[in-house]
Design a protein that fits this description.
The protein is an all-beta fold. The chain folds into four domains: 4-95, Immunoglobulin-like, CATH 2.60.40; 119-213, Sandwich (Immunoglobulin-like); 220-281, SH3 type barrels; 289-333, no CATH class. The chain contains no helices and 36 strands. It has strands at residues 4-9, 12-17, 25-28, 33-35, 39-41, 43-45, 52-54, 57-58, 66-67, 70-72, 76-84, 87-95, 119-121, 126-132, 138-143, 146-152, 155-158, 173-176, 180-186, 191-194, 197-202, 205-210, 215-217, 225-228, 232-233, 249-250, 254-261, 264-267, 272-274, 278-281, 289-291, 295-299, 302-306, 315-320, 323-328, 331-333. The strands form eleven sheets. Strands 13, 20, 23, 24, 27, 28, 29 and 30 form an eight-stranded mixed sheet that branches. The protein starts with a strand and ends with a strand. InterPro entries: SH3-like_bac-type. Residues 223-281 form the SH3b domain. This is N-acetylmuramoyl-L-alanine amidase.
Length: 335
């Protein structure tokens, strides 16, 4: 039976088969890989006899011959040449900027207008807009007969990716925000505000462009109710898989939708859920439940606590050393 060694990094499993004819291999990153990270791991393996070098520098390896050194990345294409004996492997990694560069002409940078997708919010919530345009321009956005000036930003703080903890480079960086414009407003009344129209003026010339996302203000008395249809709804702290996970929501859980962003729904307790894991219940009232007649019993290995509810509600679990906290949202105790 062949033996297999697995190396886990950043949630992905990398497997090195133990073969007698094994030569220099790079399993990550693939050639022509693109990233916004400031560092990259080169993960691979080679036979123990001989050295492996990267751009002329010999790297350390594990007793089994595997390696995973990290290297800083410059903006643009970074070339890494790995050598083992007569064998050479070249990997190119393209580090792209986190935001588009300011355009040269009288136009907005491609993909820079925000919101980038349809959004819904409650009355009284702040709605923010952003754009990247030539420095020194006058930029504004018009929506629902309101004109909001977008103010030029001088600096912005960029956070490192989560992988930066592995290289001990997880420090925020203050960078120039030349060409970035931002502004916010508050809509007091429900209704369809439509797509914002961005305008920039410079040197006596003016350009206009509609944003990609539609803005709607919800009616508080007519909010929809979402029911979880997945076995375990993956709730998150924000509207994408980039955000942290919260306690999963069991199938059948109901909650009022207080906002949305693209395919993500914001539920009344603060969690965000992918729309495909839910269904909308027509004519439903905001879900609430009483709690009473709570009881507990000892079972070998744990304590079981039973909370009778009128319906499934969002939950949050926090467990620490010697403590366990369960939060039941949209409930009222009658104990």
């Amino acid at each position: 039976m062949r033996q297999v060694l697995g190396l886990a990094l950043l949630g992905a499993a990398v497997v090195f088969p133990a073969q007698a004819d094994q030569t220099l291999r790079v399993v990550y990153p693939p050639n022509k890989h693109e990233t916004i990270a400031e560092q990259i791991f080169l993960i691979g393996t080679a036979p123990l006899q001989g050295d492996v070098s990267v751009n002329g520098r010999v790297i350390s390896r594990s007793p089994a011959g595997h390696f995973a050194p990290s290297f800083p990345l410059q903006l643009g294409v970074n070339t890494f040449t790995l050598r083992y004996g007569e064998q050479t492997v070249t990997v190119q990694v393209n580090r792209t900027p986190t935001a588009p560069a300011p355009p040269l002409g009288l136009t907005f940078a491609k993909g820079s207008l925000t919101p980038t997708t349809n959004i819904t919010r409650l009355p009284g919530e702040q709605i923010c807009f952003g754009a990247i345009a030539p420095p020194g321009a006058k930029v504004s956005v018009k929506i629902a007969n309101q004109t909001i000036p977008l103010i030029a930003q001088t600096q912005t703080v960029e956070l490192p990716p989560n992988a930066a903890v592995l290289t001990q480079t997880n420090q925020p960086a203050t960078v120039s925000a030349a060409g970035r414009y931002q502004g916010c407003t508050i809509a007091a009344k429900p209704g369809q505000l439509g797509k914002p129209q961005f305008q920039l003026s410079k040197n006596g010339a003016t350009a206009r462009q509609h944003g990609p996302g539609n803005v709607e203000i919800l009616t508080p008395a007519a909010l929809s109710v979402a029911q979880v249809t997945a076995e375990q709804g993956v709730a998150r702290t924000g509207p994408s898989t980039d955000y942290s996970r919260l306690t999963p929501l069991p199938r059948g859980t109901q909650a009022t939708v207080t906002g949305s962003e693209g395919d993500w729904l914001r539920l009344d307790y603060g969690g965000w859920l992918d729309k495909k894991e839910t269904r909308t219940i027509t004519g439903a009232v905001p879900p609430k439940s009483l709690i009473r007649s709570i009881r507990s019993r000892q079972i070998p290995g744990w304590t079981e606590v039973i909370f009778p509810l009128q319906g499934p509600v969002p939950v949050k679990v926090n467990q620490g050393d010697g403590s366990f906290t369960l939060t039941l949202y949209n409930t009222t105790a009658q104990t």
